[in-house]
Amino acid sequence: GAGVSQTPSNKVTEKGKYVELRCDPISGHTALYWYRQSLGQGPEFLIYFQGTGAADDSGLPNDRFFAVRPEGSVSTLKIQRTERGDSAVYLCASSSSGTSGGHNEQFFGPGTRLTVL
Amino acid sequence: AQSVAQPEDQVNVAEGNPLTVKCTYSVSGNPYLFWYVQYPNRGLQFLLKYITGDNLVKGSYGFEAEFNKSQTSFHLKKPSALVSDSALYFCAVRDYNTGGFKTIFGAGTRLFVKA
């Protein structure tokens, strides 16, 4: 079956602009995660969805970052007033873990490389 | 707060030799521990996990890891390295008592296996 897909694969934008990054999880996976990975670093947790709701958004760096998952499947990460420091690879992952789980492995997408000029 | 340390940026090993990639963690509760691998131009892939039970866990591609609670470590091992094992390896932890669903990743260790 299809894995996690992310679009676009690359996004170049100018400082101050708004961007949206999309994630299509594996069908049937209720859990969805967003991470940010800077060069030479491991993935940094941003937000976790269980179904349609954001169960843990403690990793969002500030209020310029927002994510939605309106139908419990596709998710969009939105960044307002982008800054050069937002440049990174944004990773999405999904898993089949339910509310009583949390220990199931995550399946990662290929990422979106965001460059803010 | 949760944290993960991978003390080695890079590990070099000859093909056929055993390999170890180190990981230590810090959580206030009890950990779920994971290893992921990232091959060039490919996404992160799950290797193995420790949830509970036997401290030695076996995973994909012949890898295994040992959970050591007293040393708060979860080192990744393989008895005989292959050139194709060369990749970037990440250790990750989740504190299932207090950390919610947040997974914390280490900075990664690059493994080079020479033929």
Q: Layout of helices and strands, plus pairs?
A:
The complex is a heterodimer of chains A (117) and B (115).
Chain A: E1 5-7, E2 10-13, E3 19-24, E4 31-37, E5 44-50, E6 53-56, E7 65-68, E8 75-79, E9 88-95, E10 107-108, E11 112-116
Chain B: E1 3-5, E2 10-14, E3 19-21, E4 24-26, E5 31-38, E6 44-50, E7 56-58, E8 64-68, E9 73-78, E10 87-95, E11 104-105, E12 109-114
Parallel strand pairs in B: 2-12
Antiparallel strand pairs in B: 1-4, 3-9, 5-6, 5-10, 7-8, 8-9, 10-11, 10-12
Outline the structure in words.
- The complex is a heterodimer of chains A (117) and B (115).
- Chain A has no helices and eleven strands.
- With 117 residues, chain A is mainly beta.
- Chain B is 0% helix and 52% strand.
- Chain B has no helices and twelve strands.
- Chain B has strands at residues 3-5, 10-14, 19-21, 24-26, 31-38, 44-50, 56-58, 64-68, 73-78, 87-95, 104-105, 109-114.
- In chain B, strands 2, 5, 6, 10, 11 and 12 form a six-stranded mixed β-sheet that branches. A four-stranded antiparallel β-sheet of chain B has the order 3-9-8-7, with no helix packed on it.
- Chain B is globular, with a radius of gyration of 14 Å.
- The chains are: A mainly beta (117), B mainly beta (115).
- The interface between A and B is medium-sized, with 29 and 24 residues.
Q: How would you sum up this structure in a few lines?
A:
The complex is a heterodimer of chains A (117) and B (115). Chain A has no helices and eleven strands.
Strand content of chain B: over 45%
> Which regions of chain A contain 5 or more consecutive residues with pLDDT less than 50?
none
What's the mean pLDDT score of chain B? 92
Please tally the helical runs of chain A, counting DSSP H or I stretches of 4 or more residues: 0
Key words describing this protein structure:
heterodimer; A: 117 residues; mainly beta; seven-stranded mixed sheet; four-stranded antiparallel sheet; 11 strands; 0% helix; B: 115 residues; six-stranded mixed sheet
